Amino acid sequence: MFTTPEQFAAANKATVDSLLSLANTALASAERIAALNLNTARSVIEDSVSGAKALMAAKDVQEALSIQASLAQPNVEKAVAYSRSVYEISAQTQEELAKMAEVQFGDFQKTVAGLLDKAAKSAPAGSDVAVAAVKSAIAAANSAFDNMNKAAKQVAEITEANVAAATNATVKAVGAAAKGKK
User: Under a CB-based contact definition with an 8 Å cutoff, are residues 26 and 92 in contact?
Assistant: First the structure.
């Protein structure tokens, strides 16, 4: 497969670079999730303390119920925002990984095409049919990869639209319920 030590070294370097890129992407995603979790935890604690103080300051049961109802909507909105942020981080990471896979597959296609051309040039007479069959199989694999990639992108778009619709419906429903309790 490799005819010179330089080609072997270049292939190893490319592999290490790819793995490093994957690791950096995964770590960046984990870092973003960890920061989101810490900020959310801090916000929940602050909101809980603030809500508890407001409830303790209530003069009667009616005021306490009113305060509690007024706290529900912001809490649901924050929970929905948290879920949306987790989804966005995950979707962005998946998109970056998909791009890396596309690049790797493209490089693989080029390598295989180059090897196939070399093999075709040095193949014995009469092997044209076998070379054509391999080229046809590679073309079919490329087409299948493209179709799977397009389908995955469509699923991601549909999922994103559904998440947005569900998020909006949840916030509206909780808002309507909170108004009905007042």
Answer: no
